[in-house]
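A protein record pairs a chain with a discrete description of its three-dimensional fold. The following entry can be read in just this way.
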Amino acid sequence: MEGPHHRNSSPSGATRRTALGLLVGAPLLTACSGIQQSLSQFSNGGPEGGPAGPQQQPQAVGTGQVKIGLILPLSASGNAGLAAQSMRNAAEMALAEFQNPNIQLLIKDDGGSPQGASQGAQQALSEGAEIILGPLFAGSVPAVAQLTRPRGTSVIAFSTDSSVAGRGVYLLSFLPESDINRIVDYSAGIGKRSFAAMVPDNAYGNVVEAAFKQAVGRKNGRVVAFEKYGADRATPARTVAQSLGQADALLLADDGESVVATADALTAAGANLHNIQLLGTGLWDNPRVFASPVLQGGLYAAPDPAGFRSFAGRYRAKYGGEPVRTATLAYDAVALMAALARTQGAQRFAPETLTNPSGFAGIDGLFRFRSDGTNERGLAVMKVASGGGTAVAGSPKSFGA
């Protein structure tokens, strides 16, 4: 996948439109694999084992008057530290691509710990930060919120754990609920009424279960079978296989390798998966899924991959490496802050501004924050094919009421 020619600090018109597309109120127009998978490892804990690197010194980027705190686990061990470095690069890239932004990023390294996040937030607030972006780990979000809520300062965190969202704390991440709502709504729109599902018996599966049952009920559908699995897939697979004659759609919500194993278990239990519409989440955006004969034709909800491809090309040209999939979150957060600082005056980061129902347009399409701190995304519906996912329904250009 070739990137565009090297860009200097003066962005092209297309890039400027991407950043300025985050303006509020008007009709807002604007993958690589494993969106939620790459985030889920950061949802509920800290970095994986191994020594962390040396604490990185605070850094101020930009010369604008509006100060924005950015808290990332830059010195955390393993994948978390690598993701944080990529997200910082993306944040700085957004600043460079937005024309004359009136913001300054106050970048703090939390080391992947709640204590570090609290210290970073305290420093940023004392230096005049009007809003905090980050942290990445769910366990660190309450430590930051404890400092920001008494001040009435908002937080836009990157965790996928909806339980840490709430008053003044908004999540800019890829939440499983958005995937489930989109794929169930689309399925109902093409006539599917009876649903079965197999999901993992873990925190992700619990979120999927609640969202799935609500979404099916909202569409006046029925759930004819719902099973969770742990190490043993064979027993729940037999139960679901026996019920598939009553269903016209089957949700398999897990990452690529596990989805293939679950499909194989269902086939071994006697299910003919070619006779039912298979449904999935953004975790299906994975080479293992595309290579599976039994999953061909399955449908899943995910951002339109064109946005990430364009972003990744610019990132490669600037930094000489590949961005992590989560890097677009940092880019969009900073671009949004720059747009709001330019257009919204003293109310730029007020709750009513952040929760504008028209939403915002980012790298991965349309998104909006709900008053409970969760978000809703405008997702495409993709079909599994041997060469990768192909869009069967595009991302919406605006949100409904």
User: Anything to note?
Assistant: The longest helix spans residues 78-97. The radius of gyration is 21 Å.
